[in-house]
Design brief:
The complex is a heterodimer.
Chain A lengths: L1 H20 L3 H27 L4 H25 L11 H23 L1
Chain B lengths: L19 H6 L11 H22 L3 H5 L8 H15 L1 H5 L2 E2 L8 E2 L7 H15 L6 H27 L2 H13 L1 H4 L9 H22 L2 H17 L3 H17 L5 H18 L8 H4 L4 H22 L3 H29 L7 H7 L3 H5 L1 H5 L8 H8 L2 H14 L3 H19 L4 H35 L8 H13 L3 H29 L8 E4 L5 E4 L1 H12 L5 E3 L5 H8 L2 E2 L8 H12 L2 H10 L4 E5 L10 H15 L22 H5 L1 H7 L15 E2 L4 E2 L10 E6 L5 E6 L7
Parallel strand pairs in B: 5-6, 5-7
Antiparallel strand pairs in B: 1-2, 3-4, 7-11, 8-9, 10-11
Helix pairs in contact in B: 2-7, 2-8, 4-6, 4-27, 6-7, 7-8, 7-10, 8-23, 10-11, 10-13, 11-13, 12-15, 13-15, 15-16, 21-23, 22-23, 23-24, 23-25, 26-27, 28-29, 28-30
Classes of the chains: A mainly alpha, B mainly alpha.
Chain lengths: 115, 738
């Protein structure tokens, strides 16, 4: 039972890896950016666990800016991915402009919230 | 194409059709203006919306015309005072304002405990008008803010209806919401309260969110985040949005309607909306710490899981592998989420639902545990008569609309159905929440009306085409040819359709008449000026409240402290400009209980309490001379209950006789000697109030009072208004020790 599960996990891992290699480069860049943002958020949470959460608004603004920009990047990825049929007629420039606008609003609010 | 729409107050019906023959023969010849059909339709729509906009505004002006342009009720006076402060001192002072004039000696952090949306909106309108060199007084802006935003709500309702169904439904929704009494009750001119702006913000947020889900565009989702921010800044009822939207997303996920558009819309709105909402000091960190907001976070995490699973499924083309992966991921996600929620709630980090909202889920909670919430008349459960009064025909159009929504299910109709059902449940629990349900009821009823009228007129139109024996152009031509055989076998179908259309028109006109009557009779009284009919049918005005507050303003020292029941606190600070002990904010139950205890004790004990609070004047409201029934004696039992909730020395049965509340000779001795009784009935025993009745006859309670010979030892009468409605007493300093 354990052997089949590990074999399943290995198969899963291999097929995911081989499928992922086939994705276009621009999507891979966005994925890298998302991973970076989430990693930064995790570092901040670890730091908060070490030194305590005062001032809480600064901690929240730091973590939420990472999560926020990660989520917006995922939305950009969805809209730019040519294989998504729903967004076929959405120009990638429009998607990127929306992304930039939302990030601008996000970071303005973060700067106000940092305190 | 152009459905038939009926502005409720217009005198003639205008019909557009696609057939050129009928345009020639119609009542108003558009050919002279050389407009194409699409342009005619646009002109009609704009004209209707313009009329509805004006209608929504002027329907709310009854009290301004009958009385004067003044602020109504109690809460709006606080909003007015803060707006005045904002326009005089600027935003920075307003945001950091600590008020020492209320809740003496505690004070109140106003900047951190109010929802600034309404005040900032009114101040912006005021500054905009001043920039255009219209030097209006801020009070006029405050009085007319609510009707202005009601008009804007009708526009949003039009766009929302267009998004859910079609333009016809949008137009009908705009008309219905313009005059619906459920909305008018809290948005008349003068009702300068948070709901005036909040309903506009609520509908705007919902519209932008549904638009974002339909289009999958980040820009619309950003718009809905801003709408949510406006709503959070305006009203505490934003909790409804932050719970309804995740619930809607959950329902979509369960019914298998997960899509990329939903992911984009919800995530962008949640993150940006949450961040923007935390900028309001009163809300603070509640979005990550309060139990009421955890649903949204849970659905956010669930969406990430869904997206991840969807992506993995797309990458792998092997279903068996994916199934195992799915099982592992879902179980682990649910486990982690459950453990986190459990730990958070158990450790107290995630605060449980506050009493105000918990009493919505468990309506019996407030009566047992929090008497202050139970005492507010707006928080009582709704009677059927209130529903009928506030909705009229919308009550039975609502289920009809639900039927149409279910027939044509889409992401948008699911949303409006959920909004309608949840808001109607809450409206049944608490009367004041009828306001929140009104837009949903209007929209769903509009769908019913629009779909019905469309079906009926299409029946009429096909019949006319057949009788024309001319061109078969236009919509429904194939239907016409198939219906020819059907129509010829049912010759009364056209008459039936006309009869039904007349019926619909009759219903809508009765609705308009009812709404106007309700607005005029029930919802246009300022509450601070009372009106009655004299013996000859002439109108008599009782302006006692303002008389008393202005007496306070002009005849008491500026640092005088006034003790009264919390209902009048805001009005005293706004109009009397004096420090009060408790006011309508009711944030400190113990302080209110202290005042309640003072009012229920005999004069000596009450004097001790008043000395400890530095009270200089006591204000009571008494309706015995005029028959005004919302006076302090009728509220007295609540004072006893609230006081008794904190100080067990005050026991409610002491003031009742056999469970009955009496003020005549048979009243309990504790009642006859308490401070409230003495202050209300001082010198009343000498007054004859009604012909044929003995002196001291209380017209509000309908009986002769028990204790007519009242002597006051520690207080003296300072002022009684002309109709004895407000009575002010001065607290005498302690006598010199001999």
């Amino acid at each position: 039972m354990v052997k089949s599960t590990t074999k399943d996990a290995q198969d899963l891992f291999h097929s995911l890896r081989s499928a992922y290699v086939a994705t276009p480069t621009n999507l891979k860049i966005i994925d890298l950016y998302v991973c970076f943002a989430v990693f930064t958020a995790l570092i901040q949470v670890a730091y908060m666990a070490l030194v305590g959460s005062f001032p809480f608004n600064s901690f929240l603004s730091g973590v939420l800016s990472c999560i926020g920009t990660a989520v917006l990047a995922v939305c950009l990825r969805i809209q730019v991915n040519k294989e998504n049929k729903e967004f076929k007629d959405l120009a990638p420039e429009r998607a990127f402009a929306d992304f930039v606008l939302c990030n601008l609003v996000l970071h303005l609010v973060i700067i106000n919230f940092l305190g | 194409m152009g459905g038939k729409s009926e502005p409720a107050k217009s005198e003639s019906m205008a019909t557009t059709t696609t057939s050129p023959d009928l345009i020639n023969s119609s009542f108003f010849s558009f050919k002279s203006l050389k407009l194409k059909t699409k342009q005619q339709e646009l002109l009609l729509r704009i004209a209707i919306l313009g009329l509805v906009y004006i209608l929504a505004f002027i329907a709310r002006l009854f009290s301004v015309l009958r009385y004067e342009s003044m602020i109504h009720e109690f809460d709006p006076y606080f909003n007015y005072r803060t707006t005045l402060f904002l326009t005089e001192k600027g935003f920075y002072e307003f945001w950091n304002w600590f008020d020492s004039e209320s809740w003496y000696p505690l004070g109140r952090i106003i900047g951190g405990t109010l929802y600034p949306g309404l005040m900032v909106t009114a101040a912006l309108i005021y500054w905009a008008l001043r920039f255009l060199r219209f030097f209006v007084h801020i009070r006029e802006v405050c009085v007319l803010t609510a009707p202005f935003f009601a008009s804007n709500t009708t526009l949003v309702a039009y766009f929302f209806g267009k998004e859910i169904w079609d333009t016809g439904a949008g137009l009908v929704a705009a008309v219905l919401i313009a005059i619906c009494p459920g909305y008018i009750s809290r948005s008349v001119a003068g009702s300068y309260d948070n709901e005036a702006v909040a309903i506009f913000a609520l509908l705007l947020t919902f519209y932008l969110f549904v638009k974002a889900v339909n289009t999958g565009s980040l820009a619309w989702a950003l718009g809905s985040a801003f709408g949510y921010f406006y709503m959070v800044s305006a009203w505490g009822g934003y909790v409804f949005i932050i719970n309804l939207v995740p619930l809607y997303v959950l329902v979509l996920l369960i019914t298998g309607r997960y899509s990329m558009r939903l992911y984009i819309a919800y995530n962008c709105m949640y993150i940006l909306g949450m961040l923007l909402a935390m900028q309001i000091r009163f809300v603070g960190f509640q979005h990550v710490q309060s139990g009421e907001h955890m649903g949204a976070m849970g659905v956010f995490l669930l969406m990430q899981v869904f997206y991840f699973l969807d992506w993995v499924k797309y990458q792998l083309n092997d279903t068996k592998l994916f199934q195992t992966f799915l099982r592992i991921t879902v179980t682990s996600a649910i486990l982690v989420g459950g453990i986190a929620l459990g730990v958070g709630t158990a450790s107290g980090y995630i605060s449980p639902w506050t009493g105000r909202f918990y009493s919505l889920l468990d309506p019996t909670y407030a009566k047992d545990h929090i008497p202050i919430i139970a005492s507010v008349s707006e928080h009582q459960p709704t009677a059927w008569s209130s529903f009928m009064f506030d909705y009229h025909i919308l009550l039975f159009l609502f289920p009809a609309g639900l039927y149409f929504c279910f027939k044509r299910l889409s992401d948008a109709t699911i949303f409006i159905v959920m909004y309608g059902l949840t808001s109607l449940y809450f409206a049944g629990v608490m009367v004041r929440l009828i306001l929140v349900a009104t837009p949903a009821v209007c929209l769903i009823s509009a769908i019913a009306v629009s779909a019905t009228v469309k079906n009926l007129t299409s029946l009429l139109r096909t019949k006319q085409k057949v009788s024309q024996t001319g061109s078969t152009k236009g919509a429904g031509s194939s239907k016409a040819s198939s219906k020819v055989t059907l129509d010829q076998s049912q010759p009364f179908q056209k008459n039936g359709a006309i009869a039904l259309l007349v019926g619909v028109f009759y219903l809508l006109s009765r609705y308009a008449i009812h709404c106007t009557w309700v607005t005029s009779e029930a919802y246009s009284s300022p509450s601070i000026v009372l009106a009655a009919r004299g013996a000859h049918g002439n109108r008599i005005l009782f302006d006692d409240y303002r008389e008393a507050y202005y007496w306070l303003r002009q005849n008491t020292p500026t640092d005088a402290k006034i003790m009264s029941w919390w209902d009048y606190g805001y009005q005293i600070t706004a109009m009397g400009n004096r420090t009060v002990i408790v006011d309508n904010n009711t944030w400190n139950n113990t302080h209110i209980a202290t005042v309640g205890r003072a009012m229920s004790s005999n004069e000596d004990e009450a004097y001790e309490i008043m000395r400890s609070l530095d009270v200089n004047y006591v204000l009571v409201v008494f309706g015995g001379v005029t028959g005004y029934s919302s006076d302090d004696i009728n509220k007295f039992l609540w004072m006893v209950r609230i006081g008794g909730g904190v100080f067990p020395v005050i026991k409610e049965p002491d003031y009742l006789v056999n469970g009955e509340f009496r003020v005549d000779k048979g009243a309990s001795p504790k009642m006859l000697n308490c401070l409230m009784y003495k202050l209300c009935y001082y010198r009343f025993g000498e007054l004859t109030t009604e012909y044929g009745k003995p002196p001291g006859y209380d017209r509000a309670r309908g009986g002769e009072i028990g204790n007519k010979d009242i002597k006051l030892e520690h207080l003296e009468e300072a002022y009684t208004t002309s109709n004895w409605i407000v009575r002010i007493y001065r607290v005498k300093p302690p006598t010199n020790r001999l």
